Every structure is written in C-alpha cells, then in structure tokens.
Amino acid sequence: MHNLTNTMTMFNNWEIFKGKIGVNQPLIISGPCSAESEEQLMNTVEPLMATGKVHAIRAGIWKPRTRPDSFEGIGAPALSWLRRAGEAYQVPVMTEVANALHVEQALNAGVNMLWIGARTTVNPFFVQEIAEALRGADVPVFVKNPIHPELGLWLGAIERLERVGIRQIAAIHRGFYAHNINPFRNDPKWEMSIEFRSERPDIPIICDPSHISGKRAYIAEVSQTALDLQLNGLMIESHFRPEKALSDAEQQLLPEDVAALLDSLILRKEDCADEQTNQTLENLRVLIDDIDRQMVEILSRRKDIVEKIGELKRDKGITILQFPRWFEILRDRTQQGKDLGIDARFVHEVFQLIHKFSIDVQQHTMAKLPEKF
Ligand code: PEP
Ligand code: MN
C-alpha cells in the first residue's frame, strides 16, 4: 500500500510553496467565493494574512452559477484587484478558469495559480480547451472533482493537463451533487477521495469543506474529517462581511473564524511510534478483519436463501417485490439498529443496498428458466 506518511509535505515540492509550509502541515487556501470589489478583497485578504496561517488566496472572478439571475462574477476587471492583493501581501493568488479566454486573461494578469471548477471538470471539451490554452505555461492547476461521482472524469481532466506539460497539479475534493441531501450542500462521498488517492498517489489532494458544507456550522467537522483522511490541505471560503456576500453567503467564514477553525483542527499521525499502541491497534484490526469476513459469509448465506425464494416465486408465478414485506424489513432492521445504538440512516442504507442485490439475484433466477411459465 502507498505510504501516506509524508504526503502533507507534497506542496513543499512546488516552486511556489517551497519552504512556506511546515513539515506535515496542510496547505491552507482561503479567500472569498467571488471577488466583489477591490475593497472587499483587500479587507478579506489583510486579516487572513495577519493570521499567518494562510498560504494562498482564492477568489472567483468568473462564477459558474446554477441559475442565470445570480451574481456571475465581475469578470476581467477583477484580475488586477487579485494581482494587487497578492503583491500587497506577498501571497500567491488563484482563480477559476472555465475556458481558453479565462486562461489567457488570468495568465496575462499575473494570477499565480488556477483551478478548474466542478461544473467544468465534467466536460472533456472544456477541459481540453483549457489544457490547450495552458500549453507551455508553467502554472500550478487545481482540479475540482466533477459534480457527479465519476472518478474517470476527474482523472481524465488531470491527464489532459499533464499532456500539455503542466507539472504542478492538485485535486480538490468539493463533494458531489445529490438530490435532497442533508445536512450538507454536497455529499462528501469520502470514498471518492480515497479512490482518487489510490489511483494517483503522486497528486496532492485538498478538500473544499465550504462547498461540501454549504453552511458555516459544518465547516469545522468536514475539515477535520478531511485531515483525518490525510488530505493535503483545505480551501476555505472567507469574506470580511459574509452575510453581505454576493455568492455563497451562508458558507463563507470571517477571516478570524478561519483562524479559529484552523487552531481547532487536530493533526493526527498515521503511525504511532509507541509499540504498545501499535500492538493494541493491530489486535483490534484482527478483530475487525474477522468480523468483516463473517459479514461476507453471512451475505453469501443470505444470497443462497434469496435464490431459493426466487425459484419458488418463479415456479408459483409470484412477483419479485412485495412492498409490505419490504417496508416491514426496513422498519424492523432499522429499529433493531437503533436498539443497538447504530445510526438508523446507516442501517437503512445498508439494507437498501442488500435489497437491491436481492432483487438482482431474483431477477437472475427468474430469467434462468423462463420455460417454466
Ligand atoms: C467555487 O469554488 O466558488 C466554486 C464555484 O466551486 P465548485 O466548482 O466546487 O462549485
Ligand atoms: Mn463558492
């Protein structure tokens, strides 16, 4: 398995951050969702930099908004504000690009780093256009995950950048659109960042807890989870007057709250030097391995029974799904979970998955011997 112990230092290999990030410290990017005015940008960047904890400044200039009547960013005039903010506080600045013109204007204006947004990563035409515009440029590029959880698009966008010679590339995990989810704005689907890491252990990956959370209240817990999963940094939206922000007002933090949040985060170690702890951990893992194997075996026994049920239903001409029976199973198992102190939503989801598989198995059984009908 890939050894993640020193991944936190990956950004220190980038020219722009050399010697700027402490050993095993995450990269911290902050700044407003959108650049709204030079005053707003300066008033946000000044206290952010005063914290001494922020390594780069973000600000959206061209904003991909879901609905057309929303604030769509200032556009090119904001580029000089961003550059001046970077110069004034000696900090790299970055913005989102979604087409070749954005790339050209941002690079001409001296923007230090770029990111590709979630609504752009989904479209290989746009990513390719951006990549072509970047050919020959030596600028760090961050790639947000696509809106829906398709690893291939995320990896593909990175490969397109690599093919035009971009050497400094990082991924941003910003969560995935899901219908009616709670309590977050985007479903974190943490397994996606783990899969990303196993495919590309050489590419650093940071988390954008602001777009996952959608609300200030959840940013700390999402950031902590990201660090516990050994992501290499955080991009946190901030604004000197969040409630007045023209976009994403509910998720932007005051610069001083960014500092407090960063202070509250715990950086856990992957390994422990202490033998006793390692031994205890090892023993607990043996127990987990044993339970997991038992679970797979039980699932296999359940599948055998499901097949028998499928055969019976087929022979007697009964439909696969009986709704009252299914609702009763869900109710009963969720209640059992609750009684045992397991999160009801978790048990519910596990049984939905098990049930989906049972239906597949029964469909297969039904299809096997259609001549019996
Ligand atoms: C943003 O970072 O402001 C943004 C638009 O993010 P995303 O592409 O993740 O929606
Ligand atoms: Mn935003």
Describe the structure.
The chain is an alpha/beta fold and 373 residues long. The chain folds into 2 domains: 7-264, Alpha-Beta Barrel (TIM Barrel); 275-367, Up-down Bundle (Chorismate Mutase Domain, subunit A). The protein has 13 helices and 8 strands. The chain has an 8-stranded parallel beta sheet. Strand 3, helix 3 and strand 4 (113-116) form a beta-alpha-beta unit. The radius of gyration is 25 Å and the shape is globular. Bound molecules: phosphoenolpyruvate and manganese (II) ion (MN).
Brief description of this entry?
With 373 residues, this protein is of the alpha/beta class. It contains 13 helices and eight strands. The protein has helices at 38-50, 78-89, 100-108, 118-121, 124-134, 151-163, 190-199, 209-213, 219-228, 255-264, 275-316, 323-339, 344-368; strands at residues 27-31, 56-58, 93-96, 113-116, 141-144, 169-173, 205-207, 233-237.
